[in-house]
Here is the input.
Amino acid sequence: MQPMSRYEIRVCTNRRLTGKKPSCYNNGGEAIWIALQQQIERFGLQHEVTARKSGCLDRCEEGPAICMVDRGAGSESPLWQGIRTLFSANKTCRVRVQPRDIAEILKELRPGNRNSGG
Ligand code: FES
Here is the structure.
């Protein structure tokens, strides 16, 4: 079994067609999704970062929202990384994200900028 990428970034692209509550799709979630994919490729982080579209992350009023899960270093077993992902351990979320913010967010994950250990 191959190790998982260390980070998983979930981009809320939830769409509400009606209702009083805002949704990230209507606030630019798709643009965040596109920018994230472009910047992952630009920085060559395809093995370090997995990007996923997500349903509602429960930060609708502040969207677009993203959450990042640190699954731990690759030296950890894939089983343990999977458990961390499942329970969203080491999760941090950002709100009111703009496409121009993505590069900076990814830079914070790059070697030399991240905390060592799991
Ligand atoms: S719709 Fe994006 S956090 Fe709820």
